[in-house]
């Protein structure tokens, strides 16, 4: 330890004779990283005691609804006060600090900072410690997958029944009105076993999906999360195929778990998602958006045996528990020997904090044997007795059939398959006891588990197999359960749609309607339907009549007019009024999202420098898997972004079609020379024909992609830059080709350009610099005789360049304009000299056009500002 302090004195002379706040790992790292950026975690002195808060609220019998806003207010207040001076310091050193992430759930900041600023940072009294931040998380080892595409009519999975849920179903508990957060690799939202209960249908998507790798819910990185959710809440109603336990529960999800070393999320990613879970809708006064249970299928990546036994992660888990959320973890797939118990599963704040689940094989006869892969205890964190036993309980996790891909099923094995059985039971119990905290429900499951293996709690089975009915009876000793079969009110906004029956519209008007169902057990005589388009003031319709249980009524909404193109959002909600309490309030609201296509005049140009939204492109992704997006291509000589589709990782080989659709382009009624031009890049993955992707270039009428005119299609060597074979290609500057097509028969029409990729598990396709123009007004590639008359140097440049026009190209008067990729003129002048120096070093980097207009002609050339 003396050597450690000596190192700090030598490196940080300003810290002589003082206790350093820099931990040993960071100190050693700095010996080899002087005057460089280093990623650090700054922890502050004052921390909110979530454990004491939780104990106090239990003593006060404070309901979950009341405690969450109070907890968040306390956490945010402390973080705001403690972090203020450090944030000001960062503002004063903008070149020395980057990628700043602040957290209130544990009062910490993670950032990248130049090492020479660390001594100054240590001077802040409110900082307790500074750590090297290089932590990552991963899923548990990849489980065995046995695809099973068949659906079972009226089937119930044996593992589901092994948890003794039938008595609760018979009472009427199905998870109705409760919500789970699937902390995993992502979820395919359209899977028929749970698509109707995705919370994004009922709330803002930002409050129901916390994406790390994707902006919208999907399972393209892995179907692991889809499988997990199926066991929690899966029921395909068309076949009555019951794969899940709480089959009327709602769900939210993230995709924060990496399946490869390259995609491992960081500690900051993990903390951000838990912080989001405490306040998904961003309104601290509400708690209806907070999940009842978080299902976790992840672990610390290569952590030491006693890592995270205390510190920020323990504080984080305590905050989740204090909010009343049940926090359930897969115990690990490192059995049968105890090589390690992973973090955070090894945390031993209490027997049920970070509740860890082992796996048994429920496909065999009772008593169910432990799965060979199921991790054993004891935990490595200091403790005695039950605190160091691992796991807490076991559940079925071997050869579990559940949802897979978008409309399939598969058998998977792992403690990740056991954990959702526990989460599903928690949702049933939460429906029965809505005011009971997650911790109390976990204690009920822990204390009533069926003992397996050697008598008593052990490091193989923990307390034993969960028993849903026994836990219910345990809780009923102190709490009165709700009666799901008693007369109750439930107004269900079952459907929201429009008479246009399209999610993409060419016009700005639409007429929506709502189908309202009486899902309760009491006759309804009146209710109100409220509606709001794009956040406008709510309007409402009052309905009166007789609506018997199980009946529906359609409510027509007046014709609405949108004043915005692109993404639109209509929110409709039904309300009984007078503060009437309903059994399930989530289904009172529906979100209807649609796109109104903008119309652009020619010349049209888009280099994708600002993504698809800025240019009003939309993507058609029928299979929900990999599709068109924008990506940074570092080897180009123009701009940075391109459109691409990741064909190298796109499988299976099923000829999926993905479309990149431009805005509507208004073609002039009279013109004989109209053109489409674009740059593209592709290299073959193999010389065999069955892995050659195809790119169709189409024109689409109106807003429906059903009516196409095919301009061309490219495949094999017609699409590829050359005969090179290269896996997972990223184009070099010289690996681009240009497609140019004459457009005939389009005069007077509004049409979209469609790039349709047909996947055959081949390689990556790139598109850039799409332009539609009239002869003589080309916004991109010019014929050589024009290029010879217009000179720009240097190009690329840093924002300072010279434009020179030859004498034969202009008369005495001409205009120079600089145009961005959205067609906006950002600079213009009428120069006197033929050579003009221009300084635009204040504008963003990217692709621009230099437009020279003379009385004789127009000349246009690309420039790149780097």
Automatic annotation (TrEMBL):
InterPro entries from the UniProt entry: Ig-like_fold, Peptidase_S8/S53_dom, Peptidase_S8/S53_dom_sf, Peptidase_S8_Ser-AS, Peptidase_S8_subtilisin-like, Peptidase_S8_subtilisin-rel, Secre_tail
Ranges of residues in domain Peptidase S8/S53: 176-464
Signal peptide: none
Record keywords: Hydrolase, Protease, Serine protease, Signal
UniProt key word Signal: yes
Active-site annotation: 184 (charge relay system), 224 (charge relay system), 416 (charge relay system)
Record-linked SUPFAM superfamilies: Subtilisin-like (SSF52743)
One Pfam assignment: Por_Secre_tail
Location of the Secretion system C-terminal sorting domain: 792-865
Family label: Belongs to the peptidase S8 family.
Protein name according to UniProt: Uncharacterized protein
Organism (species): Wandonia haliotis
């Amino acid at each position: 330890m003396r050597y450690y302090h000596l190192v700090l004195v030598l490196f940080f002379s300003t810290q002589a004779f003082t206790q350093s706040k820099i931990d040993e790992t960071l100190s050693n790292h700095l010996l080899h990283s002087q005057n460089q950026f280093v990623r650090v975690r700054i922890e502050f002195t004052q921390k909110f005691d979530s454990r004491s808060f939780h104990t106090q609220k239990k003593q006060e019998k404070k309901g979950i609804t009341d405690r969450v806003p109070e907890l968040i207010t306390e956490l945010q207040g402390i973080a705001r006060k403690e972090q203020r001076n450090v944030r000001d310091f960062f503002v004063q050193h903008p070149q020395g600090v980057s990628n700043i992430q602040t957290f209130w759930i544990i009062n910490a900041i993670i950032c990248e900072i130049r090492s020479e600023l660390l001594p100054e940072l240590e001077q802040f009294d409110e900082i307790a410690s500074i750590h090297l931040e290089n932590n990552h998380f991963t899923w548990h080892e990849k489980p065995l997958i046995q695809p099973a595409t068949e659906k079972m009519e009226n089937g119930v999975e044996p593992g589901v029944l092994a948890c003794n849920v039938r008595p609760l179903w018979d009472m009427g508990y199905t998870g109705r009105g409760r919500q789970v957060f699937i902390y995993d690799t992502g979820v395919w939202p359209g899977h028929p076993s749970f698509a109707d209960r995705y919370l994004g249908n009922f709330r803002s998507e930002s409050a129901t999906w916390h994406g790390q790798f994707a902006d919208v819910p999907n399972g393209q990185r892995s179907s692991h999360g889809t499988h997990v959710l199926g066991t929690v809440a899966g029921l395909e109603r068309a076949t009555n195929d019951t794969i899940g336990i709480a089959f009327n529960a709602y769900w939210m999800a993230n995709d924060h778990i990496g399946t490869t070393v390259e995609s491992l999320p960081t500690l900051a990613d993990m903390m951000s998602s838990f912080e989001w879970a405490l306040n998904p809708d961003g309104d601290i006064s509400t708690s209806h958006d907070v999940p009842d249970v978080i299902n976790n299928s992840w672990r610390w990546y290569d952590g030491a045996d006693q890592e995270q036994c205390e510190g920020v992660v323990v504080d984080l888990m305590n905050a989740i528990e204090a909010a009343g959320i049940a926090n359930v973890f897969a115990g690990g797939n490192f059995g049968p020997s105890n090589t390690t118990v992973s973090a955070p599963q090894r945390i031993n704040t209490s027997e049920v904090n970070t509740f860890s689940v082992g796996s048994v094989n429920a496909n065999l006869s009772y008593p169910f044997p432990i799965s060979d892969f199921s991790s054993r205890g004891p935990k490595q964190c200091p403790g005695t007795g039950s605190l160091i036993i691992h796991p807490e309980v076991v559940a079925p996790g071997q050869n579990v059939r559940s949802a897979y891909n978008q409309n399939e099923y598969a058998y998977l094995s792992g403690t990740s398959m056991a954990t959702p059985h526990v989460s599903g039971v928690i949702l049933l119990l939460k429906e029965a006891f809505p005011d009971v905290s997650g911790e109390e429900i976990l204690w009920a499951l822990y204390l009533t588990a069926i003992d397996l293996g050697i008598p008593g709690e052990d490091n193989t089975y923990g307390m034993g197999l969960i028993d849903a009915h026994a836990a219910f009876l345990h809780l009923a000793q102190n709490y009165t359960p709700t009666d799901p079969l008693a007369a109750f009110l439930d107004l269900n906004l079952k459907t929201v749609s429009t008479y246009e029956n399209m999610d993409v519209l060419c016009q700005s008007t639409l007429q929506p309607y709502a189908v309202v169902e009486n899902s309760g057990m009491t006759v309804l005589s009146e209710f109100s339907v409220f509606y709001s388009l794009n956040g406008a003031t709510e309007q409402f319709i009052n309905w009166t009549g007789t609506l018997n249980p199980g009946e529906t009524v359609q409510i027509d909404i007046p014709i609405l007019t949108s004043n915005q193109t692109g993404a639109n959002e209509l929110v409709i909600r039904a309300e009984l009024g007078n503060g009437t309490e309903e059994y399930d309030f989530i289904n009172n609201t529906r979100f209807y999202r649609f796109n109104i296509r903008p119309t652009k005049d020619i010349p049209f140009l888009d280099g994708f420098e600002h993504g698809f939204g800025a240019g009003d492109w939309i993507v058609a992704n029928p299979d929900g898997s990999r599709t068109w997006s924008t990506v940074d291509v570092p080897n180009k000589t123009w701009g940075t972004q391109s459109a691409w589709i990741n064909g190298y990782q796109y499988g299976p080989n099923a000829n999926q079609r993905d479309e990149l659709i431009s805005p509507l382009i208004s073609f002039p009624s009279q013109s004989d020379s109209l053109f489409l031009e674009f740059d593209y890049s592709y290299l073959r993955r193999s010389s065999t024909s069955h892995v050659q992707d195809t790119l169709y270039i189409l024109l689409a009428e109106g807003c429906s992609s059903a009516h196409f005119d095919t301009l061309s299609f490219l495949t094999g060597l017609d699409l590829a830059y050359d005969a090179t074979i290269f896996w997972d290609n990223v184009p070099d500057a010289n690996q681009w080709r240009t497609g140019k097509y004459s457009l005939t028969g389009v005069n007077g029409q509004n049409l979209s350009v469609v790039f349709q990729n047909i996947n055959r598990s081949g390689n990556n396709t790139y598109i850039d610099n799409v332009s539609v123009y009239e002869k003589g007004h080309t916004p991109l590639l010019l014929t050589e005789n024009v290029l010879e008359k217009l000179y720009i140097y240097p190009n690329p440049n840093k924002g300072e360049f010279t434009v020179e026009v030859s004498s034969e190209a202009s008369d005495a008067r001409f205009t120079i304009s600089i145009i961005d990729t959205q067609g906006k003129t950002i600079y213009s002048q009428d120069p006197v000299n033929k050579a003009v120096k221009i300084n635009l070093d204040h504008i963003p980097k990217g692709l621009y056009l230099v437009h020279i207009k003379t009385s004789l002609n127009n000349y246009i050339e690309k420039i790149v500002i780097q």
